[in-house]
Design a protein that fits this description.
The structure is a single chain. With 320 residues, the protein is an alpha+beta fold. It has two domains: 2-132, 60s Ribosomal Protein L30, Chain: A; 143-319, Phosphoribosyl-aminoimidazole Synthetase, Chain A, domain 2, CATH 3.90.650.10. It is 35% helix and 26% strand. The protein contains ten helices and 13 strands. The protein has helices at residues 48-65, 86-102, 153-161, 167-178, 182-188, 203-215, 232-237, 243-252, 264-271, 285-297; strands spanning 13-15, 24-29, 32-41, 69-79, 106-114, 119-128, 143-147, 195-198, 217-221, 256-258, 279-284, 304-311, 317-319. Strands 8-11-7-12-9-13-10 form a seven-stranded mixed beta sheet, sandwiched between helices. A six-stranded mixed beta sheet has the order 1-2-3-6-4-5, with helices on one face.
Amino acid sequence: MLHSLPSFAHPDLIVGTETSDDAGVFRLRADLAIVNTVDFFTPIVDDPYTFGQIAAANALSDIYAMGAEPRTALNIVGFPKGKLSLDVLAEIIRGGSERVRAAGAVVIGGHTIIDEELKYGMAVTGIVHPDRVIRNVGVQGGDALVLTKPLGTGIIATALKRRKASRASVRAAVASMTSLNDTASALMRRLPVHACSDVTGFGLLGHAFEMASGSGVTIVFDTRQLPLLPGARRLAEQGYLTGGCKRNREYLKHQIAIDRSVRNGLTEIALDPQTSGGLLIALPESHAKALVDELRSSGVDAAAAVGYATALQDVCVRLV
């Protein structure tokens, strides 16, 4: 659909819509650019305060993926009139505000409409030096791929709706989804990172495809190294899959190759849409261990080197 729309050109437009980057970037002056993003969705947990935290952390993540620092946020709300108490909305916004405050940014307003289904999210603005923008393209052959959060949030959320997820799985998923990617972003900015994306709705394989296809390389993931949320693999093998997982599989079927040795549960996890997922960082292999060690020592416990990039092969992404 976007291909049918006119594109925007401007001498100060650094990142637009051409490469499916996580946010747009516009230069204000030689040493300052603004980064803009927006994200919202329906509840994936029952507690309104926690839902607000997750939605805000998810929206803020796009700013961190670009190597930027968030500064302001606007609430976006769709609320079913007469079906829920306004106290629910107040708790959602309170949760979102808590995460924005933790990010060192401020909420400066928002907009609410009456909607049949509850929706919440944020439009976030960040700042970055124009020469230090980190995009989702630029991966080079020989790069290592580092992932900063465990996978499986969509699968666990689906199982939760059917009352089949354990308390331990839900606690771990919520802790991951409410965690900011601020530490990971700050640490990666110290190193010669070639590209980065946060792993969200297109899953690990979908976002890796965007990175690989835009960079002209093939990304290979080692499933033995993927960090997983507790219970995610078992739930995936039992069939607790989101509709988004199936759509990701259909979208990527000609773009990825999956080794026969990979168990189906791990394939589904790699396709699973993530909410407030981790950063997928491409950097020279010689720096990967140092980044993982720094991440783990700074509290990003799930950080792991999960793959590498090679010269372009017959597909953009391989799972082995």
